[in-house]
Amino acid sequence: MIRSIYLIRHGETEWSLSGQHTGRTDIGLTANGEAQARRLRPLLQGVDFAHVFTSPATRARQTCLLAGLSDAAQVEPDLVEWDYGEYEGKRSADIRLTMPDWNVFRDGAPGGETCDQIAERADHLIARLRGLNGNIALFSHGQFGPSLAARWIGLPVVEAAHLYLDTASLSVLGTNPHHPEISIIRSWNIVPPNA
Hints:
By secondary structure, the chain is α/β, with parallel strands linked by helices. The protein has 7 helices and 6 strands, in the order βααβαβαααβαββ. The chain has a single domain (2-190), classed as Phosphoglycerate mutase-like (Rossmann fold), CATH 3.40.50.1240. β5 (170-176) and β6 form a beta hairpin. α2 (31-45) packs across α3. The protein is globular and about 45 Å long.
């Protein structure tokens, strides 16, 4: 039985800093992103992880390494960020110049993944995670992470718009201790303080 799922967003990249959507473009962490990832280590050190999974993206794998969990990590393709298609590398503000009401969690991305495809990918991953025991660490991204959390608690992907994640943040998913059939968000968007 799962005890807790520790959902970690990767550290800062040049594109997360500029607000550009980074789906399939594989870029690494900035120096600040590396420092952010190292600051996650004390939050994760005392946890006994039975499983550690990381997105195949360099930024997620670097965060996993610098947070001290790479020795046990397995690459999990379902943790990859949303495929933004034609919106790859663009900022939301720029997209809204031609699509004023655009919201990735409602509208998806032309030439990329739809909300239904994201929900299906998240549900597929959740079904596999539910078959595991112990604490699980997941290194993922700023828009797939909230989508996964929304699906964990039974909400449609559109509701993930309310679950913002900072870079190098930690969130914890689990179940209600009195009603284990009810999935919950234990904590959200914890950012370690600067040293």
